Amino acid sequence: MKFTEEHEWLRVEDDVVVVGITEHASEQLGDVVFVDLPEVGTEVVKDDEAVVIESVKAASDILAPIDGEIVEVNEMLVDEPGKVNEDPQGDAWFFKIKASDPSQLDDYMDEAAYKKFIG
């Protein structure tokens, strides 16, 4: 897994990248009450807003970590946004993206570097 400074995790599965938020991000947000997912087929560029999540504390954007096409979204989160708090690094992934340039993943931290980053 790779991690971004925006507290997203990225898991490569074959030719797609699964994107979610870290446990640290989930704890900082508090109880998630709403998730707005992108449309399948949407072309995104790195750092584009891809997902909007709202918690009891704040609204946040999840950014596209790489260039590519959204190939799947986790519809379960629309009906059960609280799953983000229950299993942020497991079942509560947000979207899968087919990377246009997989080398963009090289810019992100491994788990040890991320743990150091959040200190």
List the main descriptive attributes of the protein structure presented here:
119 residues, three-stranded antiparallel sheet, six-stranded antiparallel sheet, alpha+beta, OB fold (Dihydrolipoamide Acetyltransferase, E2P), 4 helices, 19% helix, globular, 9 strands, 37% strand
Question: Could you describe the 3D structure shown?
Answer:
Residues 16-98 form the Lipoyl-binding domain. Keywords: Lipoyl. The glycine cleavage system is composed of four proteins: P, T, L and H. InterPro entries: 2-oxoA_DH_lipoyl-BS, Biotin_lipoyl, GCV_H, GCV_H/Fam206, GCV_H_sub, Single_hybrid_motif. It comes from Roseovarius litorisediminis. The two termini are 18 Å apart. It is globular, with a radius of gyration of 13 Å. A 6-stranded antiparallel sheet has the order 1-2-3-9-8-5. It has a 3-stranded antiparallel sheet with strand order 4-6-7. With 119 residues, it is an alpha+beta fold. The mean pLDDT is 96. The chain contains 4 helices and 9 strands. The chain has a single domain, classed as RNA polymerase II/Efflux pump adaptor protein, barrel-sandwich hybrid domain (OB fold (Dihydrolipoamide Acetyltransferase, E2P)), CATH 2.40.50.100. Strand 1 (2-3) and strand 2 form a beta hairpin.
